[in-house]
Structure prediction request, 177 residues.
Amino acid sequence: MHNHVKKILITQDQIIEKTKEIAQQINEDFKGERITLVALLSGSVPFLAELMKHIKLDCEIDFMDVSSYRGTKSTGEVRILKDLTRPIDSCNVIIVEDIVDTGKTLNVVKGILENRDPKALKIVTLLDKPEGREVDCYADYVGFSIPNEFVIGFGLDYDELYRNLPYVGVLREECYM
Ligand code: IMP
Prediction:
């Protein structure tokens, strides 16, 4: 275990098992359809990579990068840094996110993509922190609901570090600036 990690919250095996279950649900829900997985960079990349291995449908992937102004201001203002490569009108779109906290980022992204007339628009997130919610936002597929602690690993970072850890862990308080 990395020495900046206070405790492991979710092991790699648990993540893989849960991700398979979610993929099976998506396979059933979109049976016979083609889907587009829209991953929000960079945190959702490991989850996307795991999830897509178990999708049996015709499946495209695309990426979007948004910056949300959180921290002291926490305005929920979201700026698109990288937009999708292809149009999504008439597509079955599933937004792939690492974690939903306040819900502000996903709310804005969902609004942007809804305006592009997809056939369906769903959200899948590896983690959900329901206690952090500030706006009404829910994911259609949730891996794990977790307590309101700052977590790292499996894509999640603190100051761009720890994304490569193969598990989700709680960061030691002394590692915060
Ligand atoms: P929201 O707009 O507050 O829902 O923010 C979601 C984004 O905040 C996620 O995509 C993460 O980048 C980041 N985030 C929220 N909670 C955590 C955490 O515990 N660890 C790492 N990043 C987090």
Strands lie at 5-10, 34-40, 58-68, 78-82, 92-100, 120-128, 141-145, 151-152, 168-171.
